[in-house]
Amino acid sequence: MAEVEWHHIGISCRGMNTCDPFFRSAEKMHQGNQTTISEFFLLGLSNQPEQQKLLFVLFLGMYLVTVVGNGLIILVISLDSYLHTPMYIFLANLSFADISSISTSVPKMLMNIQTKSQSISYESCITQMYFALMSVTIDNFLLGAMAYDRFVAICHPLNYMTIMQKKLCILLTVIPWVLSNIVALTHTLLLLRLVFCDSNTLPHFFCDLALLLKLSCSDTMINELVLFIVGLSVITFPFAIIFFSYICIVRAVLRISSTEGKWKAFSTCGSHLTVVLLFYGTIVGVYFFPSSTHHDDRDKIGAVLFTVVTPMVNPFIYSLRNKDMKGALRKLISRKSFLPLMP
């Protein structure tokens, strides 16, 4: 039997049938002197077997809470005509984006834990990366659109309906989806030109663009430059809109003479401000403050916060802090309770 050796990782075996399955399953399609792998291996959040069951139960629970919570927000807004306003239309889109965000990574991770398999095909990995990029990007743009809506509502209340017309509302809803898909498509097309040689192991629970660039044996300078420029724009542009909108909102609120009036004005954007602080606070806390945490672990923590925790808590923030949403939820529950009593 011919001997097969991998000198770069110090492993050798006689015949493919006796090799470690982890390496044997990494099929490779030869292209001249280079090879292109057909699948990747996701190492997940932990390599400890005793922690897998706990991770499965924990993330399954968070996934179900996120889908049900955000799905309920979409249902309530679509059924209650009182909530057919720009702010709640943006919120319904944010809820849909949150469902997309968590559905991109968690179901695959749960399936891998259940089947004790770490593999993901090349095509599935690229698709997962695309939707992960799209989901994070659209969250940024939608939070910016919602901040502008609150700015108009508080700073120009008499002209709100004139400014936030149906046409502008549709535009502010469609543009984030278009831009986020353009951003994700740009990174995906640039990634498709790269060649992946021998290494196909990702120390993550989903296909992250930065890690895929590290694995490639091609020149990734253009990819990294585009990632930096586009990533910086995607974060700073919506954040600038949010920042200046709230400066104007605070100034307008402080001009109100009564304490009750100030509280009423500011309470209309309390839920949005909480989500903004959670979203951008995560970015600052994970990526800007020095930490003793290992770089790979830090990236995993950041990814869990962005793709799992934030989408899960958003429905609670908007339902518990928002009187309109609480009222609409009560009406929906009472309607569902009343229907079985009807003949």
TrEMBL record:
Q: What Pfam families is this protein classified in?
A: 7tm_4
Its transmembrane ranges are 54-76, 126-148, 168-196, 225-254, 266-289, 301-320
Instruction: Report the InterPro entries cross-referenced here.
Output: GPCR_Rhodpsn, GPCR_Rhodpsn_7TM, Olfact_rcpt
Membrane-topology annotation of the record: Multi-pass membrane protein
Q: Could you list this entry's UniProt keywords, alphabetically sorted.
A: Cell membrane, G-protein coupled receptor, Membrane, Olfaction, Receptor, Sensory transduction, Transducer, Transmembrane, Transmembrane helix
Q: Which domain of life is it from?
A: Eukaryota
Q: Identify the residues that the record assigns to the G-protein coupled receptors family 1 profile domain, covering every copy.
A: 69-318
Q: Which GO terms describe its molecular function?
A: G protein-coupled receptor activity; olfactory receptor activity
Q: Which PANTHER family did the record assign?
A: OLFACTORY RECEPTOR (PTHR48001)
Biological function: Putative odorant or sperm cell receptor.
The protein's name is Olfactory receptor
Species name: Equus asinus (Donkey)
Q: What is the lineage of its organism?
A: Eukaryota, Metazoa, Chordata, Craniata, Vertebrata
